[in-house]
Every structure is written in C-alpha cells, then in structure tokens.
Input
Amino acid sequence: MGLNNLKIGVRLSLGFGAVLALLLAMVGVAYVHMVKTERAMEELSASEKRANTVDEWQRKTQLNLTRAIAIAKAAGQPDVEGYFSPLIKETSKEISELQKAMEAHTDTDTGRALMAAIAQKRDVYVGLRGKLYEHLKIGDVPAAETLLNEKMLPASVAYLGAMGDMQNYERKQADNQTAALRSSMAMAKGVLIALTIVSLCVGAGMAFVIMRSVTTPVREAVAAARVIASNDLSQRLDSSRRDELGDLLRALSDMQGSLQQWSDRFATPRTASPPPRPKSQQVPRT
Output
C-alpha cells in the first residue's frame, strides 16, 4: 500500500510515530546504561571500600606486631608490658571487627578464599603471640626470643602478605570495574550518537516524502481550479489516490463535468447575420 492510499492524518501519524519511536529507543538506551552505570559505580565503591578496610587492617596488625616486638625486646618488663598489652587488646578487637565486616561484604569465591587464608594465618600468628607472652611471663627470655625470630615474625609476614593479596585483589576488581564502566559509557555514547543520526535521517526522509505526497496533488488541484476558472472545461481530471487530496481532485472533476453539462444545455447557437445590400438595391426613403 502506497502513501497515496493513506489518509493525510495516517501519514503524519506514521512520520511522527517513527520519530517518537526512535526517541523512545534513545531514552530507553540511556536509561538502561544509566542503571548499569549506577550499579557499576556501587560495585566500584564497594571494592574500594573493601580495599581501604584491608589497608586499615594491615596498619593495625603492623602496629600490634610492633608493640609485641617491643614487649619481647623488653624481656617482659612489667612497665612495658603493662603499657602495651591493653593497647594490643583494644587494637585486636578492632581488627576482629574489620575482619567480620570484610567477611560479610566479600561476595566472590576468590575473595572468600583469600579471606579464609587471612583468617588461618591470623590464627597462627595470634597463637604464636600468646605463646610468646607465656615465655615472657615465666621469664624464659631465650625461648621467647627464639619463638619471635623463628616462628612469630615469619607468621606475621605471611599474615600481612595474605592481607596484601586481598588488597591487591580488591584493587584489581576496582580497576576492572572502572574499565568496564568506561567501556559501557563509550558504548552508550556510540549507540546514542547512532540513534540520533538515524532519527535525523528518518525524520528528514519522512518529512520529505509526506511533504511531497501532499504538495504535489495540491499543486495539481490548484492548476485544475485555475483552468476551470478560465472557462476551459475541456480538460478532464482523474485521480486514483485514496486520500483527501484524491477526493478533492475527483470533486473538482465532478464540478468540471457539471459545469460542462450546464454549459452545453444553456448555450444558444449563433446565426450568421445577412450580408448588407448593395447601394443600388437599397430602397430610397420617401
């Protein structure tokens, strides 16, 4: 079915509908990518928060390790132990809270495995630290020194290293999410640009086609009206269009036919006037 068989209102509705559909598609694409961007930003923020939590965990662990070494080097002196022990206990409590927060917010298998490794190495380190305090309490300084150098310090290195692995994992997750976010935004930008170009092309094309399908028969109707106005009823008008303009052209054709019938009915034939008499045959006036 061609445009000539569609009503003008239908044609206009199709044109505006196509443009509005593309506009709706643009809005839909923008909304979907906005939601994806919002989710990616939340995941990125969560990864950075976990990485910062592990960083704080490392710093507190390193602080407690330094305090424990100070107690060991002081050979269990009551004043040193009395000063650092409450601080170690308080910091250990804070570390346990950080560990629980990390375990609650870690939602990947790799992350859970890394957290399990940290928890295992922490238990080893804390157990060795407790044995160190026992040696110091009974005054066995050589045993405490041996335990510190051969077991506790290597265990602390492994403990801190496990936290470093977790921190690197979260940083990498954040970097990957940042890259994915940038890629998603670039893709959304490309899709929106493409849809904008398509919208412009479709809008311009529909406007041209609809304008041409309307203006061409209008010009034909104007020309036909002018011909009829000039008393020329010899030209016939016909149109196969099924729209309002086709109706107009057919109405003009009907009007032309009616005028032609009236003209033929009331026209009077013209008779030739007699030729003038020669002067010799003119009757003189009396």
About this structure: Residues 27 and 110 are 37 Å apart (CA to CA). The two ends are 86 Å apart (CA to CA).
